[in-house]
């Protein structure tokens, strides 16, 4: 969620530079350092490391002894399904925002788009995901130690 907020802030800054330099309708690079993307990639990488370790630990501890490999495989299938869902969401956003002659949030020329809105929407979905996770985690009962 913090990575998406960071990406939205950087994209908003990039769009402001685009406006100030008069590059909105030109398909050219914006004079902005690529290092602005560093914080969001750091946050995303740290989140993936911590979540994958926690996911592995959870499935190893909570699955029956004879099903640990299968449960680990299901966790990886879950990650791949999430990636497909992200692609589907991206397609839906473009479909719903590019109506009525509008270019939408994610046009071919990003200088004319609003990718920052997409990042904020993804941050909102991440917040919703965290709330559902906390709801489920509070009701989870750990496996009995054998």
Could you characterize the architecture of this molecule?
With 146 residues, the chain is an all-alpha fold. It has one domain (2-139). 68% of the residues lie in helices and 0% in strands. It contains four helices and no strands. It has helices at 2-21, 38-62, 68-97, 115-139. Helix 1 runs antiparallel to helix 2.
Topology:
Layout (H helix, E strand, L loop, with lengths): L1 H20 L16 H25 L5 H30 L17 H25 L7
Characterize this entry briefly.
The protein has helices at residues 2-21, 38-62, 68-97, 115-139. It has 146 residues and is mostly helical.
What summary fits the major beta sheet? none
Helix count, DSSP H or I runs of 4 or more residues = 4
Cα separation of the termini: 37 Å
Output the helix-strand order: HHHH
Domain count, please report it. Answer: 1
Rg calc: 20 Å
**Broad shape:** elongated
- The average pLDDT score comes to 90
Tell me roughly what share of residues is in helical segments. 55-70%
Could you name the ranges where pLDDT drops below 50 across 5 or more consecutive residues? none
What structural class do helix, strand and pairing data support?
mainly alpha
Strand content is under 5%
By DSSP, the count of extended strands is 0
Features:
146 residues, mainly alpha
């Amino acid at each position: 969620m913090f990575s998406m907020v960071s990406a939205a802030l950087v994209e908003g800054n990039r769009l402001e530079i685009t406006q100030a330099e008069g590059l909105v309708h030109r398909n050219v690079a914006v004079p902005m350092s690529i290092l602005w993307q560093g914080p969001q990639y750091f946050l995303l990488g740290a989140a993936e490391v911590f979540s994958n370790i926690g996911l592995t630990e959870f499935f190893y501890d909570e699955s029956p002894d004879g099903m640990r490999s299968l449960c680990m495989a299901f966790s990886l299938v879950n990650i791949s399904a999430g990636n497909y869902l992200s692609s589907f969401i991206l397609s839906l956003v473009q479909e719903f925002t590019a109506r009525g002659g509008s270019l939408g949030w994610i046009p071919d020329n990003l200088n004319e788009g609003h990718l920052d809105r997409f990042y904020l929407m993804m941050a909102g979905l991440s917040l919703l995901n965290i709330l559902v996770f906390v709801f489920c985690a509070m009701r989870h009962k750990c496996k009995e130690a054998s």
